[in-house]
Amino acid sequence: MDLRYSAADELFRSELREWLAAELALLPPAPHRDDWLARRSYDTDWQRRLFGAGYAGLSWPKAYGGQEASPGRQLVFLEETTRARAPYVGVNFVGLLHAGPTIIAEGTDAQKSQHLARILRGEEVWCQGFSEPEAGSDLASLRTRAVRDGDHYVVTGQKMWCSFGQVGDYGELLVRTDPDAPKHKGITWLMLPMDLPGIEVRPLRTVSGSSEFAELFLDEVRVPVECRVGEENDGWRVTNVTLSFERGTAFVSELVDAMRLVEDLAPLVRDPGHRRELGHVTAELDGIWALTKRNVTQAERGVTGRGTFMIKLAYSETRQKLGELSMRVLDREALVIGGPGNFVEERLRTLALTIAAGTSQIQRNILGERLLGLPR
Amino acid sequence: MNFDLSDDQVALRDGIRALLEGKFPMKRVREGFNLDMWEVLASAGVFSLRADGFGWADSAIVYEELGRALIPGPLVWSFGCAVPTGGLLRMDSGPYFVEHLDEIDELHVLGQEGIRSIDAKQISGKANDWPLDPLTPVWRVEELPAGDPFGEADASAELWYGGGVITAAYLVGMADALTTLAVDYAGQRKQFDRPIGSFQAIKHICADMAVRVEVARAATQAAACILDDPGSGNRERSVSGAKLLANEAGIANGRAATQVFGGMGFTWEVDVHLYLKRAWVLDTHFGSIDHLADAVASTHVDLGSSASGNH
Asked: What CATH number has the domain bearing residue A191?
């Protein structure tokens, strides 16, 4: 047992560092937060650069254009790109981390050849249509209806928290195809071409004022049957294939970013009580980083360790503490958003961490029931 | 990456766990530490791991098992010693609270300038008849003999960090045992015609216990790896952070298990209080939560105010 990376991974790291230093110097300035067309073009441009250099789809199989890199190498990639302040995966998030892997796991050959390469090259942007106004933590209670009509599903309903809805070419959509079946058994997973008639996208403004989410209104949208991924009424299982991708190395960038925020905050800390809390939060982040290395080691051995199911809960709770501390350190400077370090904006953005992708309460239910074996 | 137990380390863990379960069930543990117990542990090689070629990571694995079994005694101070040895962090003046004075041959006093060793027979103190932890008897000593130099500053630092890591490992083992106790009870105990573990209020307490264990264990084993391979990280930051998380896991899980056990958790009969009390004792060894948080903060290069890294 040790903390070293393999020589091959260290070589990968140094080559990546060199490439990042050269490539990041060529990037145009990042666009305004709410200029979604510019953001799409900026993020997909970055994805094309990654693809050109052989850094796209690290976790994807080689058969679909990916690098099939080991979890350790993926960890190095996320560590280095975050440290170098390379563009975040951004609008490519749903395609690269949800829809793409789902199509790889469950899609037909035609679906694979139509979408996977385009996602990897930054040519196709995906958004997510899972949650609904009445279906949040209880996602399986979703009510958006899809009625079969010949070669089409006719879809009517409303989706919430549609990530990147303003700029998506396709949406991953969960619909109810059998209203009489038990709730988990009547759901189907569809690819929704976002240019179909009957789709209305309304930006949803978050507490931080940002608009990366949208509401989606679907009024008798005719979706071709060939857009179905997996069998009809088997969508819940297909969905769980997708959701599990959020629990691997998905929080590494967040974690590296939080450690950088701690380093940015340290010079501002004068109060001994704040200093002690900074030490506390640092120890927690270091511990979560060590657990990440444990999880990655186990993943390389083909084992999904129990720690894998804990990172999201532990990280998001610690990140909230860091956010509270930064507000108190800033004191009156916290009354203004957009100052150096982005502490206030980060405090607002990270309020979502204990809610999105399974609230902390849902995470604790999962841990209690599936890991500890407590009764439902 | 290679940050998980090797096959040899799994065998080491399973071997010591089986030995402790066989020799020291809770009934025996409740009788407290004595020379017989020390000899069983010594002949199993617990105190001579380093001399026998094992690393700090291996030692942490063994001490986690000692903590899981709640083996009492000056186990960390005796690490690397041939006779039962107690210890104190340097204090400028008495009174001193010396643990296990009746069973130790030597007392090591750890300071930044070095370690001093005092013959335990030369120490006079008053046995306390009501220690916080019934398995950690305490003597109140007004004055300590000067003793003899036992190690230089380097040895003192190694003992500070090494002792911190294996104490952290011991606390992780305790916190894990507490999680098992609480989860088992929550699955069996019924109220309102349901196992109490089916209530989210109880389930979430148990989930948080399990998370504290895994994070603290990873941090502790990472710190142990850094002691074995100093180029792979920052010793001060990793050891201080790991012991902070382990202290917290021990205390918070002790408190959580007490709550899950309800009224039974407040009884002498249920083992939970013995764990919680030991966790409080060990928070005073090799750095308390508050002290360690300051130590971690002081490792930030650009800390705003001048940081004091004293220990």
From this structure: 2.40.110.10
Q: What pTM was computed for the model?
A: 0.96
Q: Does residue B169 surpass a pLDDT of 50? A: yes
Structure tokens given for A228? 């179905």
- As a whole number of angstroms, the distance between CA B4 and CA A253 comes to 22
**Same-domain status, A219 and A252:** no
Q: Do B183 and A291 touch (CB under 8 A)?
A: no
Tell me whether residues A71 and B244 touch, CB distance under 8 A: no
Nearest to B17 by CA among B164, B176, B162, B135: B176
Report the alpha-carbon distance of residue A310 to residue A298 in Å, rounded.
14
ipTM of the complex: 0.96
Test mutation, A265, A289, A303, A374, chain B, max B CBs within 10 A: A374
Q: Helix axis angle, B153-188 relative to B56-68, nearest 10°?
A: 40
β-bridge partners, B236: none
Render pLDDT for A139-172 as a digit per residue (tens, 0 to 9).
999 999 999 999 999 999 999 999 999 999 999 9
Q: The domain spanning residue A297 has which CATH number? A: 1.20.140.10
Q: What range does the domain containing A65 cover?
A: 7-88
Q: Which residue does chain A place closest to B180, by CA atoms?
A: A372
CB distance from A282 to chain B under 8 Å? yes
pLDDT at A246 over 70: no
